[in-house]
Amino acid sequence: MMKTNGIAAVMIHVPDSEAALEWYSRAFPDAKKIEVSEYQFKCLNINGVNLEIVNFSETARPGDSVVVVDWMVEDFDQAIEHLIEIGATHFWGPAFIENGMRICKLKDPFGNLLGIRGL
Question: pTM of the predicted model, to two decimals?
Fold first, then answer.
């Protein structure tokens, strides 16, 4: 049986990792930027989860396999408004889910989906 300690990283594939890193920095302004110069690698850390933004390749393109990460937010409506203001587009929802929470899916400017959950 495999035991985990939670999610370590989420990798998304984009056509321009620098532009996407900047966009996601605006999307999640509390994220900590991490740079590993020896590997020429940059990512964002959001509450202990690395958001690894990499250039797509022939084997991994935006939207492939369609894994969607849902981010818990303090202010649901404000989060959606913020993401749309900086270039995300509506994809699905919002809808009510358990415990009075809502969920919504948005598409980033690079073709990937992200989810928002909150009250």
Answer: 0.84
